[in-house]
Write a structure and sequence with these properties.
The chain has 13 helices and 13 strands. The two termini are 17 Å apart. 33% of the residues lie in helices and 17% in strands. It has three domains: 108 residues; 64 residues, no CATH class; 182 residues, Rossmann fold (3-Layer(aba) Sandwich).
């Protein structure tokens, strides 16, 4: 935790603390425990990792809180002996000297029960008017997700609570439903499949970089034609750069292992041609590939995403990779899809190039993007005295 000290422009100005936390719930708990009843939240914004950390790290929340001086002693500086509760044990707060121009800007910157289309696209009934639901609707929450939340068994227990408490219950509810899904482990043979234009090859490159730089393995790639032309220019160049061997013939590929996993790259499969998907399934069966990752572009329309998942059932897809996550205007549309698809979420990718962010922390990414920063701020502000 950092202490942000500023020039005392007002006689009652207090000290400000910057907290880096994993969730809104953690921020509320830490502020209550460490800063006491006189603390007030000033801003909340999302921050991410840098450099190679971006391949494996998930975004966090940066919270600026201020301790208000006692009323009878407004002109005295508030002393602090707080340890850092978040990052390192026994770490001391780091003061930031505003006279040297290095004060950080404290303003906020900007259940599985049938075919997917039946359980997601057809949700009868209208939303019941409620302050929490009304605010979530205004911030763009997906209507299907809101109806799901309203159908939860504990909805009546928290629907009329202050916003911050309601957001906490919703966060816990989404996390529980995500965690209750059956998680399939990946094998040492992993196929990436998807329709044209979803970013499948870019995602493969990110997987390879993750294997080489983070897992310290020696992955291999098999470029599969499967009756559809599948050029390899961009992938071949990337493989040469990171030292990955690219094969064009299955007969030439050595046996895969945990230290030398095999990734299979298939051509884009048209959603209008089920024969291509069936042919791909036959190829995967012949090569004994059990981990079949469906790559989807998260920025696509929800109906298109549902069709992708339903079509992928024809070839036995097991996992889900979401691309273009940073371009999604409303990530809440993905919750019904993730929870009900029967596919294990494997990763989330930002950016359209191989240096963009890549993370396997799908739950953390989804939670952090589900609630807009201004909504978090509204939730925190409901605690006038934390």
């Amino acid at each position: 935790m950092e202490v942000v000290t500023e020039k005392q422009s007002e006689p009652n100005a207090g000290k400000r603390y910057k907290l880096t936390v994993r969730s809104a719930e953690e921020a509320v708990r830490v502020i209550r425990e460490k800063l006491g009843d006189n603390a007030k939240v000033l801003s909340v914004r999302q921050v991410g990792g840098e450099g190679l950390k971006r391949f494996i790290s998930s975004p966090k929340l940066e919270v600026i809180a201020e301790i208000q001086p006692p009323v009878d002693d407004q002109k005295d500086e508030v002393k602090s002996t707080l340890p850092d509760p978040l990052l390192e044990d026994n770490a001391s707060p780091t003061p930031i000297d505003s006279s040297k121009g290095n004060v950080k800007d404290v303003r906020g910157s900007g259940p599985k029960n049938g075919p997917l289309e039946e359980t997601v696209n057809h949700v009868p009934g209208a939303l019941i008017e409620n302050d929490t639901l009304s605010l979530l609707q205004k911030t763009g929450f997906d209507q299907t997700l809101l109806r799901d939340i309203q159908s939860w068994s504990n909805w009546n227990d928290f629907k009329d609570l202050p916003l911050a408490d309601a957001l906490k219950h919703i966060t816990v509810g989404l996390s529980d439903r995500y965690s209750s899904s059956t998680e399939l482990k990946t094998t040492n043979k992993i196929a990436l499949i998807g329709s044209p234009g979803v970013g499948k090859t870019t995602t493969l490159c990110k997987f390879l970089a993750h294997e080489v730089f983070m897992n310290k393995t020696c992955p291999m790639v098999l470029k599969v034609e499967s009756g559809v032309p599948n050029p390899d220019d961009a992938l071949r160049i990337f493989c040469e750069v990171v030292g990955v061997t690219l094969f064009r013939q299955a007969e030439s590929v050595p046996a895969a292992s945990d230290s030398a996993p095999l990734y299979l790259d298939f051509p884009g499969l048209s959603l209008s041609n089920l024969e291509d998907w069936s042919a791909t399934k036959s190829t995967l069966d012949e090569l004994e590939v059990s981990t079949r990752v469906l790559v989807i572009n998260g920025a696509y329309d929800k109906d298109v995403l549902f069709k992708n998942i339903n079509t992928a059932n024809h070839l036995g897809a097991t996992h889900l990779a979401i691309t273009h996550f940073d371009e999604i205007a409303n990530s809440t549309k993905l919750w019904p899809l993730i929870i009900r698809s029967n596919l294990t979420p494997l990763c989330i990718c930002n950016g359209q190039n191989v240096t963009g962010d890549f993370t396997t922390g799908v739950l953390n990414q989804m939670i952090s993007r589900t609630f807009p920063e201004e909504l978090y701020a509204k939730g925190f502000s409901s605690y006038q005295h934390l």
